[in-house]
Amino acid sequence: MTVGVPPAFPVLILGVMKSGTTALCERLFQHPALVTAHTIDNEPAHWAKELHYFDAPNIPNNRYSKGIGFYHQHFFPYPPPQDHRLIDCTPTYLGSVDAPRRVASTYAASREAPKFVLVLRDPLDRAVSHWSHAVTMSHKHRKFGRLKHWTVSLVNAGNFSTFTDMGIAMWNQCENTTWPDAKRRARLTDSTPPTVWESCGANGLLSRHGGFVYRGMVDEQLANWRRQFPESAFCMVSMGNLHRNLTAVVRRVAVFLGLDPAGRWADKLRVVDPHSHPKQGLANQAAAIERLRGFYSRRSRTYNRLIENDGWLNC
Question: Could you tell me which of 43, 49, 56, 64 has the C-alpha nearest to residue 13?
Answer without folding.
Answer: 49
